[in-house]
Amino acid sequence: MSRRQARENVFYLVFEAQFQKQECNYAELFQTAQDIGVVKYDEYTEKVFFGVMSELELIDKKIEENAKGWKLERISKVSMAIMRICVYEMLYVDDVPFNIAINEAVELAKKFDYDKAPSFINGVVNKIAENEGLKK
Question: What is the spatial distance between Cα 7 and Cα 86, in angstroms, rounded to a whole number?
C-alpha cells in the first residue's frame, strides 16, 4: 500500500473518530473499519492513526494557535482530520519531510474537502512548520 493510500485510510479513521464519544475505543474503531472494508490493514495506517489520537490535544492546540481568527469548532471536520494527520506527520514521523506532509494534506483536501479548504489548510500547516522550526 502506498503512503498516499495509507493517509486516506488514516483520514477515514480520524474523521470518523470525531463523531465518537469522548471514551471512544480507538482500537475497536480501527478493527471495525477493517472488518467492514472501509480501510485495509497497513502498519503505517495503524502507526499514524494511533499516533494522531494519542497526541490529539497537542496537535489541536497547534492548529488553534496557527489558524488565526478561527475557533476549532468552526473548522470543518474534514479539514480538522486532514490537518491533524499533517501535523502528526510533520512532528512525529521522521521519514516524512514536512513539505511532503503539507503537500499530501493539500491533496487530501482537494479530494475530500470544499474548494477553499486546500489553501486554508496549506496556510495553517505551513505556519505550524515555520513556528516549529521545520523551515530553514
Answer: 9
Of 111, 105, 113, nearest to 84 (Cα)? 105
pTM: 0.95
Q: What is the CA radius of gyration of the chain?
A: 14
pLDDT in tens, 81-92: 999 999 999 999
**What is the spatial distance between Cα 37 and Cα 71, in angstroms, rounded to a whole number?**
34
- The amino acid that residue 103 corresponds to is N
Q: Write the pLDDT tens digit of every residue in 16-54.
A: 999 987 777 899 999 999 999 999 999 999 999 999 999
**What is d(CA 109, CA 23) in angstroms, rounded to the nearest whole number?**
28
Chain centroid, CA 75 distance in Å? 13
Cell numbers found for residue 39 = 480501510
pLDDT digits (tens, 9 = 90+) for 1-18: 999 999 999 999 999 999
Whole-angstrom distance, CA of residue 131 vs CA of residue 71: 19
Judge contact between 83 and 63, C-beta under 8 A. Answer: yes
